[in-house]
Amino acid sequence: MLKRILAMGSLLAISTLPVTHAGATLDAVKAKGYLQCGVTTGLAGFSAADEKGRWTGLDVDTCRAVAAAVFGDADKVRFTPLTAKERFTALQSGEIDLLSRNTTWTLTRDTNLGLNFTGVNYYDGQGFMVSKDLGVSSARELDGAAICIQAGTTTELNLADYFRTHGMSYTPVTYDKSDETVKGFAAGRCDVLTSDQSQLYALRIKLDDPESAIVLPEVVSKEPLGPVVRNGDEDWFKIVRWSLFAMLNAEELGVSSVNVEQMRETSKDPGIQRLLGLSGIKGQGLELSDDWAYNIVKQVGNYGEMFERNVGMGSPLKISRGLNALWTDGGVQYAPPIR
Amino acid sequence: MSDNPDDKAPAPTLFWRDPRKRGWLVQAFVLAAVVGLFAFIFDNTLHNLEKRGISTGFGFLQNEAGFGILQTLIDYDETHTFGRTFLVGLLNTLLVSAIGIVIATVLGLVIGVARLSGNWIISRLAGVYIEIFRNIPLLLQILFWYFAMLPLLPHPRQSLAFWESVFLNKRGLYLPGPVTESGFGWVLAALAVAILGVLLLWRWARRRQDGTGRTFPVFWTSAAMLVGLPLLAFGLAGMPLSWDYPALKGFNFRGGITVIPELVALALALAIYTAAYIAEIVRSGIQSVSHGQTEAAYALGLKPGTTLRLVIIPQAMRVIIPQLTSQYLNLTKNSSLAPAIGYPDLVAVFAGTTLNQTGQAVEIIGITMGVYLTISLTISAFMNWYNRRVALVER
Question: Chain B within 8 Å of A13 (Cβ-Cβ)?
Fold first, then answer.
């Protein structure tokens, strides 16, 4: 019902979209005084509201970093919870300024939807979670299984591909929200729950007895997750892209929310000086204040801090950095230099 | 229109002085304005979508879908097109609506009559039923039937088995599926002959009664024909039917017919909810026929059953049918709550997954709205036709 209203609303909205000019989004965001950010309806580690209604998570921090860069205040964000099905329409219609909702970057989405992916804030891959009683140790043994999936995800497509490639059959049980997939799995409607690996760990802790389920070792797809903006506003695109790059560069340079103030006073490293807006191009090209990156690191932290706090060892998920380590540590997180 | 009206106007009066023609003119203007407005919105939308780099058009219907669907009434797999997903979703919507309408009507009729029963307990029970189910939001009822029912059912490996051929577990109800063999056409042909025969019998019996006043046991003869003829053909053709029994293979049962729990929960919730309304409609319909009608019928010597059938119900129907129509429409439209429990109806499959995979919201929502409109208008047209028939009986 809500979905139909949303879709109808966006239909009307699309029909009356104003002609955009570059920088329109930044102006609009500044004028209303906050950033409207689309997140999940609740996925631990990525975007979930706590008991006080405060949103936390990796995707939430990505939004907060953009707000810090734009306003110098990471709290000037309002969040719109969206299901996987609603997310693109919400962004296309201008209901949100930025979509940061563990969204996989694919060719179709980058070209057909009028959207642009600005980068990758988490490298993920699709996996399978099964109940321990099933006695399965590999995804290749899942022939004939009933599988719970969330609607409107790349997961649905990868799943079909994987089973077809291996000549196996399956029964898809497709729910709207990731919460419902867990409920269906817990109730025994399906043998297998499939999703991005990171989500599986997040969903597993929602089970009454997390130990009763195991995540199978196979990773069957590439799922680069990242923030998304609308086509046609290059300036806004660059602000979002470089907000993430700033966090990665900060980690690489050893600048964190703890030492950033002191670094700004004392550091002689030209790389750090450029990052913190003391020399070089500063905020000019992005049309932001000179201390935009300083604000991000000070208020949100560098990429490593964000990762550990939300999904890493400082969180219940305890996911290791793996692919998401910096390139200098054997991962693939690599940001162009700030200079 | 402001130029010389004498050119074509054969009428002696100037056409703007003729209220009828003036009316037409105004209507034409309004129509043109409305069409123009929609054309503008349509054009503007296309223009903006193109500017945004969002794909438009209906070409996507030919593309490969690439995702699986839980329940497909027609042949479907991942390699079929998005256009096919539309058909699959549409048929699933029609299926759940049809099942819901049948159950709701029967249940509503029974409860509506029970509500008028002279038995205190029965009428109160019916009243309680109506008040409870009419006053709880439908979405909650759907979720209740689904998530309350699932944990009660056993896992596939501990399925409840009936006669070693019917199995019930969390994944659904597994029934043996009929497999027709060559020669089954004869059985269908026999059924067709039986139906035709029954229709002719009805007409004949009616004419005979009108002419001679003698009645004929039409019901039992029809039943015997409908069952007997196909059965006879079935035996003569050498029983050309075998059964495909479901069997546990790996994790789940395969083969036969599967009734998924999502379908059961949704159809049940829709039927129970709507039945509460239908019961009230039936009650009001029956009560709208004045008691004098019953007394008059008795005075003429009609039996109570005949009185109900020939006097009360035909008049009650005049009140019942129009309201029943809107309940059927409501039920069909309410079936779009299906995505909440993962039933793959039109909204879940087409306006959900397909929309998301293609991103063409305008086209897909447009098609979906068109489909619901068409279904509703069709039901409405059918019920109006039926209503006219019933209305004739009144005289």
Answer: no
What CATH architecture applies to the domain A2-123+225-321?
3-Layer(aba) Sandwich (3.40)
- Show the domain range for B32: 15-48
Tokens of A47: 């975007």
pLDDT 10s digits, B212-261: 877 778 888 888 888 888 888 888 877 777 788 888 777 778 777 888 99
| Tokens coding A289 | 């204040």
Nearest CB to B70: which of A88, A159, A173?
Answer: A173
Which positions in chain A touch B39 (Cβ < 8 Å)?
none
Question: Quick check: A32 contacting B, CB < 8 Å?
Answer: no
> Same fold for the domain at A2-123+225-321 and the one at A126-221?
yes
Please tell me the distance in Å from A284's CA to the nearest CA on chain B.
Answer: 27
CATH fold for the domain made of A126-221: D-Maltodextrin-Binding Protein; domain 2 (3.40.190)
Q: What is the pLDDT of residues A121-167, one digit of tens each?
A: 999 999 999 988 888 888 888 888 899 998 878 888 899 999 999 98
Cβ pair A107, A325 in contact under 8 A: no
Contact yes or no for A193/A185 (Cβ under 8 A): yes
On whether the CB atoms of residues A296 and A240 are closer than 8 A, the answer is no
Q: What is the pTM of this model?
A: 0.79
Contact yes or no for A3 and B45 at CB 8 A: no
Asked if residues A228 and B49 have their Cβ atoms less than 8 Å apart, the reply is: no
Residue B21 lies in a domain: yes
| Structural domain total, chain B | 2
Asked if A184 and B342 come within 8 Å (Cβ–Cβ), the reply is: yes
Fill in the DSSP letter of residue B250.
T
Q: Is residue B344 part of a domain?
A: no
Mean pLDDT across B92-114: 94
Residue A83 with chain B: CB contacts under 8 Å: none
